[in-house]
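pasting for the record
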Amino acid sequence: MKTVTKKIFPVLGILFLLFLLAPLITSGDAKADTATGSAVNITAGAAVLIEGDTGEILYEKKKDTELVPASITKIMTLTLIFEALDQGKISLDDPVSVSEYAAGMGGSQVFLEPQETQTVNTMIKCISIASANDAAVAMAEKIAGSEQNFVKMMNQKAKELGMKHTQFKNCTGLDDTIQSGHYSSAYDVALMSRELIMKHPKISSYSTVWMDSIVHKTKKGESTFGLTNTNKLVRFYDGITGLKTGSTSKAKYCLSATAKRNGMNLIAVIMAAPDHKVRFTEAQALLDYGFANCSVYEDDFSGMNFEPLPVKGGIPSQITAYPGEKFSHTFTSEYEEKKIEKKVEYKTISAPVKKGDPVGAITYRYQGKLLGTVPLLARQDAIKAGYTDFFMAALKQLFKAG
């Protein structure tokens, strides 16, 4: 009995010591989780958080898993609509006639009738606020002639954006299945969301509207139809800029939420959440995490000396340069500003040079990593010197020497 007791006491002592150390061990693990982003508790099937300016991934969970996207498909639809606007192919005041095919879409809709006409501006409102399938198809037909042609444009754009786990079969996300070949991933949704919100920020003037209305004008007369935003975050989240919800029985609940604070743009994507409340709370948690762990560095070029640049065979023989754009970089962890390295480099320039021509660049690095560059532009013209100019320059030098 004494022998057994002697063996038990040391074991109990070790167990007691582990018990005392457990909080310290747990504390250390939690700190490591926070640093990597895994401290955000996401129950949805897939999720990703990226920073809009750099595209850097701040959080990921099954980001490349191919899933049913439902109406967040319309992010690509809206991207192509805004591209067409920028290219002058359509304007906000252009009329859009509704076909029987578009009017019969079903699902989320604003009950457009065949031959009804609405403006492009109204159609964008219907798609952004009410996730209207009928309006989405009507716009697809307006831009590409048919939904089928428009879908080809969607898939081409997806390739351009590097969306490797996406294929579109329609412009709405209605009745989509993996088997049908209509799918996307959380990261791909983030990529197309970034394209839309960063290159076409005007989308926010639509996607952040909580309630609005449109007027149906048909043979039956005029009637007002109310629009209510399906993205509940627009009601209360600080800095929200959009963007799009989606849900079907197959997709469950999806959301791409975008927000901007203090110059930082974040994009949080939630896919296959179990219910509508979870998609909003978990998207909010991702955005909160991102804003808490990101900071923006901006350079105003104060204190920088841009020396005159020689121009070979030019008059004048030297020109000055200036930064062609502002520089900012979003850091996703703590950084020391004094350790940011800035290097000014000029090209070898020969005349002629026009004002505004690129003549060099400022390169930014941090701990060996390239952050970005800013072009240096010529502040004035420099014409090409002729024989007379060289002769006169030689005479001046001669007289100076005398």
